[in-house]
Amino acid sequence: MKHLLTTNTLSLEEVRTILEDAQAFSEGAVWKPEKQTFVANLFFEPSTRTKCSFEVAERKLGLEVVPFEVNASSVLKGETLYDTIRTLQSVGVEAVVIRHSIDSYFAELEEQIQIPILNAGDGCGHHPTQSLLDLLTIQQEFGRFYGLKVAIIGDIRHSRVARSNANVLKRLGAEIVFSGPKEWFDDSLLEHGRYEEIEQAIVTSDVVMLLRIQHERHEQEGQEGKAVYHQKFGLTLEREQRMKAGSIIMHPAPVNRDVEIADSLVECERSRIFKQMENGVYVRMAVLKRALQQGGKANVNDHQKWSVAY
Amino acid sequence: MKHLLTTNTLSLEEVRTILEDAQAFSEGAVWKPEKQTFVANLFFEPSTRTKCSFEVAERKLGLEVVPFEVNASSVLKGETLYDTIRTLQSVGVEAVVIRHSIDSYFAELEEQIQIPILNAGDGCGHHPTQSLLDLLTIQQEFGRFYGLKVAIIGDIRHSRVARSNANVLKRLGAEIVFSGPKEWFDDSLLEHGRYEEIEQAIVTSDVVMLLRIQHERHEQEGQEGKAVYHQKFGLTLEREQRMKAGSIIMHPAPVNRDVEIADSLVECERSRIFKQMENGVYVRMAVLKRALQQGGKANVNDHQKWSVAY
Amino acid sequence: MKHLLTTNTLSLEEVRTILEDAQAFSEGAVWKPEKQTFVANLFFEPSTRTKCSFEVAERKLGLEVVPFEVNASSVLKGETLYDTIRTLQSVGVEAVVIRHSIDSYFAELEEQIQIPILNAGDGCGHHPTQSLLDLLTIQQEFGRFYGLKVAIIGDIRHSRVARSNANVLKRLGAEIVFSGPKEWFDDSLLEHGRYEEIEQAIVTSDVVMLLRIQHERHEQEGQEGKAVYHQKFGLTLEREQRMKAGSIIMHPAPVNRDVEIADSLVECERSRIFKQMENGVYVRMAVLKRALQQGGKANVNDHQKWSVAY
């Protein structure tokens, strides 16, 4: 069975296969199950890009997406996540994509559920497809990971992306530094990389990866606080000027314009922010293919043939 | 015109035809309208399994499901149910599936609306597709209804399922008994079956059909109340041991684990709870086929041919 | 690039082409993009008929509709409309349909966004597809606009429809009069037509176009206020008797029955209210075709061929 829960538990071999498939999809490869295949997206937290990205990926694979609105579901009657997924499995759903506010919501489900779970973000924990799309974007740019310096800057403590990325990038041979407000640094991240002052990180890194300030998780600091953050830790016009030649800007979005990054830099030449979103579709196609191809006990793979056309 | 509003108004002939079609669908039969056909699901109450089940059934028939979210609709501007359905009909919708909190919400609509209405639950009234999927599950198990003893246990007064099932099962020749808290028994049910003590019902019945305790309709009794209910009227591990050889457990779900039924019995060998959900898809395919095939005045059946392949 | 933002900015040539295409669709014409094409509907205000109508139109063109629920999106995290649309574009969406409560929400987006925006209503501003479906309905009835007298009656000040329709109908050669409560008349409308007393408007017009009393925008007047409105300015049974031979009744819906129009007149012989809704689908197919055919810079038109079959 091929859940996709964290990047930490993916071998480098698996990561490379996913990136290869994603790259093929970005170049127009087509893969579709031969029979009608149902999936469902369970988003217990708001999302535009991840949800829409999965939707588009699913439709490009010819999958049937069963609409699931949390606020109109039996979750309101207290139904557990296990029973909800088990129900979807019973009506014929063959894979579920889940975003949930609880860290490692999948810890128990992993063994109990017989259809693949694709984690679309769990609390402050993991967000594997975000990491994978970041990897694809870096690979497209540099053709390698080994020896690259990646600076992850901002709200590291609350970021799913920081943890997922730090782990896998380091395993792939990149050097990681963390920057931003020191009080948001988390000692548990030290195993992946050291803290570095913003001015140094900016000028020495190949990839400047900005994280979103999660206003909904912090005290509301108002406009003044935002301007102060921007000056101290944001990618200002001035800092961008000092970035290394050939280096790129990344951000998982949604962007707080003029906070993490100056408004006019969001779509500047160095920015790969919208390229990341585009790559998200291809990465999600790859992990859906992986999940459905290998399937679970309940999966119909036995009497199913796949058509692949490149 | 073929609305599906209650099982009470279905003849046994009609019930048998629906079960036959549903069984065929469960074995892989395919039926699709030849032209693009639109339907809409109007759920004015939360639901996971009924809504998802209809969605899957509709997609398996190749239907186009027009999304309808009550909370984003003109119902918020005070539009009546008649005008909402009439609007959907005008834009080309050929059948509507409706769940609504008002008992017999369809009483007036039945004559006014020219496209089939499929009732997916009305207040404490009816839930015909739930009854039909229960029938299919029983028929698959025993091959007959005549002479079977069916115990319906729990919150009978508020249950759509109790009424729908009692009526049709009795007509099909089964013996019905009701059990659970006596104060939840309703004299209007006496025409279908008598009240029986839980211990006797459990050991003598071929089908033990548990109903959901609708916490949202009762006073909140807290954990203690739930444990007491479980001991007095729930299917405990001990009671399951005393069930008749070959008898089965059914529950319309969502299940309150360790209230109506012990947690570990939900997926035990006797349990047909998830089989019921699977059968729900086939039954809904059958009633949708019935509705669309016979259509209404406004339906395009006249210049439409159907393809049926078994 | 072919946004559709207002009818005011459409040339008569463009209006005629859209009506021609819409009429062809109403007669069964088929047009589909050859490749899988994604669109999204962003409704920031409640709607049944406009949203469902666009959905049906999109499916009839074979488009993939990416579900977008405002209340489950990153708009909740403060994402701007620009960033939301830009995100959708990045994941592959090729056109967006938007309803928003802010007048001219598209003013800045128009230049920034590289995929077509189809305006499905902006505040008290415009509602071009409603105007176009009104035009199609009138054209089907009379075969011309020149010389027709059209009375627009009711809540003119808050009506998107009044402004859009007045402008384009006048350009097409129709005579416009406005009626209803004088205090709801708006001097800015004088350029399109004069105010006329209800009794005169009713007996002399070819088209009696009633507008919805927007209770959600006015003080709640209660049942009494509604009855008074109906007697003074509504289409009563008595007034309908005095309408000109061959004249028709229109209303953008949802209708307040027995306020703007007597309950039993909603589906009377003169009424084209549900015909309007049906025509909405064809008009939306036509503007979607127009948008996708001409596309934007980001559009894949270059390597795309279209199949048209009439």
Nutshell version of this structure?
Three copies of one chain form a homotrimer. The first copy, chain A, folds into two domains: 145 residues, 3-Layer(aba) Sandwich (Rossmann fold), CATH 3.40.50.1370; 149 residues, Aspartate/ornithine carbamoyltransferase (Rossmann fold), CATH 3.40.50.1370. Helices cover 37% and strands 16% of the residues of chain A.
Could you characterize what this model shows?
The structure is a homotrimer of 310-residue chains. Chain A has 310 residues and is of the alpha/beta class. Chain A has 2 domains: 12-127 and 277-305, Aspartate/ornithine carbamoyltransferase (Rossmann fold), CATH 3.40.50.1370; 128-276, Aspartate/ornithine carbamoyltransferase (Rossmann fold, 3-Layer(aba) Sandwich), CATH 3.40.50.1370. The first copy, chain A, has 10 helices and 11 strands. In chain A, the strands form 3 sheets. A 5-stranded parallel β-sheet of chain A has the order 8-7-6-9-10, with helices on both faces. In chain A, helix 4 links the parallel strand 4 (93-100) and strand 5 (117-122). In chain A, helix 5 crosses helix 10. Chain A is globular and about 55 Å long. Residues 296-310 of chain A have low confidence and may be disordered. Chains in contact: A-B, A-C, B-C.
